[in-house]
Amino acid sequence: MDSSAAAADRYTYSPRLRWQPEVEEYFAAAYGRDRFARISEALAHPSCYSCIRVNTLKSSTDAVMQKLINLVDQNGICGGINCLEIGQQKGGDKTHEGISLVHKCPYPGLDNVIFVQGSGPHVLDYESQPEQSVKEVIVSRKCAESVLRGAQVYVPGVLACSAHVEKGDKVAVSVAVEKPADDSGWTVGITRGTVLQGVQSDVHYEERKGLYIGQGITAMSRSGIFRVLHGVAVEMTERVYRLPSFNDVLEGEIFLQNLPSVVAANVLDPQQGERILDMCAAPGGKTTAIAILMRDKGEIVALDRSHNKVMDILKLAAEMDLNCIKAYKLDALKSVRKINEAGNVGITDNCTGATVTLGEDSDNCTGSSTKVNAEFTKAGEDSSTTSVVQTGRYHPNFYTSSVFTSVHYICSIRL
Ligand SMILES: C[S@@+](CC[C@H](N)C(=O)[O-])C[C@H]1O[C@@H](n2cnc3c(N)ncnc32)[C@H](O)[C@@H]1O
């Protein structure tokens, strides 16, 4: 193979999804092998559109579309990537690759949703400087998913980098995907800080073939990337999928959210004045969707086990001007306990745990009553530092709705 053919083979994006054998067998039997192969193929690639939910308490779908059009006309919102053209397709010369369009969501009941069309996969030229060997960065899967949705590469997402990378270097960015580990779990098998050799003797050389998601310019040196805790490591200049970044765009008026998550909140059909429990809530996508459907009237108890993520929920709620969301740090796994024989509510001995007993009585046609007795740590307080911990008693009656969906961890209960 000559060097350009080898590069074309190597610097591509053609990921293959790996399943645990029993899972694969199950789905193959359910869908048929061919159909399941097509589903697996589709799941390995990012969506070609972004889905935006409008905060209809602050704006309207039409007004947001108009603002996006104006923003693009003024500055573009793609961070230097030629990918976004919003509104009507303007003239025949705009049909080249890279054009994106904005549409209202065509599905009934989702008129608060806007789609922004992206493009890809694109074939990129990674070897534009043939006299130099390609410098490389490997990022985590989570980081890669964000990059393919328009984000930059941030420091925590970088797992490995070539030697001698300086600020301003052009780098090829690939993704590390999990593979089966010895203990029957999954691992990426790369220690953070690994030096990439860029030669075939490099242990990670073969496994990143076909997993290149784009290229960019380093915003700091290799040593900086692994020394600092925050910041952009690589400014992406080319991506195999091009979608606009909505970072800092129309803050509080829009939320980027996958369509199934928007639908999950709609299916719950929350009403004004109700009380809803969202047990794995951060960053607050479904919580805020539910709050808006309730027109911010009622109460949503939003739980997350991570203190920082609880702060994210509160930040998002404040940005969106939503006052009905109360966020608490609580491990949902410790918040539900089966009823004991006597039908008593147990009390946990963990200061951040909650005890929930599912009772048999029901005074509501949609579900059974659920008594809750919990001690919780209020958002903004750190349960690991006893000097600042203040726990409060929490003892409402919960009424489960017929909807108890696990789509994207939503775990919402009508109280
Ligand atoms: C995929 S995110 C949830 C997304 C969220 N429902 C939304 O719509 O934006 C999963 C969240 O669940 C939280 N989480 C996972 N296990 C949890 C548990 N046992 N108790 C509380 N939160 C948990 C994680 O910290 C993470 O923030």
**Count of extended strands:** 21
Secondary structure class reads alpha+beta
| Alpha carbon gap, first and last residue | 65 Å
Output the CATH class name of the largest domain: Alpha Beta
The distinct bound ligands, ions and cofactors come out as:
S-adenosylmethionine
> Helical element count?
9
Mean pLDDT, all residues: 77
Shape: globular
Helix fraction by DSSP (H/I, runs of at least 4): 10-25%
At the third CATH level, what is the topology name of the largest domain?
Answer: Rossmann fold
Q: What would CATH call the architecture of the largest domain?
A: 3-Layer(aba) Sandwich
How big a fraction of the residues is strand?
15-25%
Instruction: Give, in order, the helices and strands.
Output: HHHEHEEEHEEEEEEEHEEHEHEHEEEEEE
What does this structure look like?
The chain has 415 residues and is an alpha+beta fold. It folds into three domains: 3-33 and 123-239, PUA domain (Archaeosine Trna-guanine Transglycosylase, Chain: A, domain 4, Roll); 49-117, no CATH class; 258-414, Rossmann fold (3-Layer(aba) Sandwich). The chain is built from nine helices and 21 strands. The chain has helices at residues 3-10, 21-31, 33-43, 61-74, 141-147, 222-227, 259-268, 285-293, 307-319, and strands at residues 49-54, 102-104, 113-117, 135-139, 153-154, 158-162, 170-175, 179-180, 186-187, 194-196, 212-218, 232-239, 254-256, 275-278, 299-304, 325-329, 354-358, 369-378, 391-394, 397-399, 412-414. Strands 14, 15, 16, 17, 18, 19, 20 and 21 form an eight-stranded mixed β-sheet that branches. Strands 5-12-11-7-4-6-10 form a seven-stranded mixed β-sheet. It is globular, with a radius of gyration of 24 Å. The model is unreliable at 79-100 and 346-415 (pLDDT under 50). Keywords: Methyltransferase, RNA-binding, S-adenosyl-L-methionine, Transferase. InterPro entries: MeTrfase_RsmB-F_NOP2_cat, MeTrfase_RsmB-F_NOP2_dom, RCMT. S-adenosyl-L-methionine binds at residues 280-286, 304, 331.
